[in-house]
Design a protein that fits this description.
Length: about 290
């Protein structure tokens, strides 16, 4: 048993947490480069919280340039035990109308240009992504959205696209054939990196629009997305507070806390000292 320190990654429409007490922005340095912003450190009740705006305050960083490795590394260095991500998504299903929330449980990664691992030549590791989210956190997240007044579906597949452009209609229809439920630009490699950093991860998707597969409506415009994000943001902020309040006072161990025990493959005498030094936060427990 230990204490929780919850990392909150806020996507478009969630740039602050109103319920955070004793809050202060703190610069956390990472050997993987600059994170999107400083980390807002504080507490909600008795639980410690670390908030990071995924695109930076003012939405400065586009999806393909988000340094996800630095973001996850600084949350680990800030003491996080678990991560809850909030992301706007487009809908690939008729029943997921704008304003609906989806607690994602699977991903299809279609990103192209992003560094998706902390490991590499000199220290190789392979973590399982068969079940990419934490069921314990996801259960609390779904209940929290309901308590906040939102309509939520527990479970759904998130198609991560590169962006920053929206889909073509052909792509949108293809993703529907693949069984994807929602589409976004930022959850990958974020979820993969949390797994490598032994941080249980859950994601609340906030539906802002129907992706362009629908024939009977106009194509989505950013102005419409922003308006829906603002409406979703009110529920999302209330859901974060409800999520924190729902957690037991003490944190029981999770199997995801020790995934690196069975992931490292490079022989000790073949490991690169420089890379090991960069991995001091995310993999220091096993190195």
């Amino acid at each position: 048993m230990s204490n929780w320190t919850i990392g909150i990654i806020g996507g478009s429409g969630l740039y602050q947490i109103d319920a955070l007490e004793d809050a202060q922005w703190i610069k956390v340095n990472s050997p993987f480069g600059d994170a999107s912003d400083e980390v807002l450190c504080g507490r909600i009740g008795k639980l410690q919280v670390r908030f990071l705006p995924r695109h930076g305050r003012g939405h400065r960083v586009p999806p393909s340039e988000v340094n996800a490795r630095a973001n996850i590394d600084v949350l680990k260095r800030a003491g996080c035990t678990d991560v809850l991500a909030i992301s706007p998504v487009g809908s690939l299903k008729e029943e997921f109308a704008p304003g609906h929330f989806v607690v994602v449980d699977q991903f299809i990664d279609r990103t192209k240009t992003r560094r998706s691992s902390f490991f590499g030549t000199g220290m190789v590791a392979h973590v399982s992504m068969a079940e990419p989210v934490c069921p314990r956190l996801s259960g609390h997240a779904a209940k929290a959205v309901r308590k906040a007044g939102g309509t939520v579906t527990a479970g759904g597949t998130y198609l991560a696209m590169e962006g920053p452009q929206f889909s073509t209609r052909a792509e949108s229809n293809l993703y529907r054939q693949w069984g994807a439920d929602v589409i976004g630009m930022t959850a990958m490699p974020e979820a993969k990196l949390c797994r490598e950093a032994e941080l249980p991860y859950a994601l609340i998707g906030m539906v802002t629009d129907y992706d362009c597969w629908r024939q009977d409506v106009a194509f989505v415009e950013v102005s419409e997305v922003i308006a829906q994000m603002q409406a979703n943001g009110e529920i999302a902020r209330a859901a974060v507070a409800a999520f924190i309040a729902s957690l037991p006072e003490k944190r029981a161990a999770s199997p995801l806390d020790t995934v690196l025990d069975h992931a490292l493959i490079t022989a000790p005498d073949a490991r690169d000292p420089a890379l090991l030094a960069r991995l001091d936060a995310v993999a220091g427990r096993v190195l």
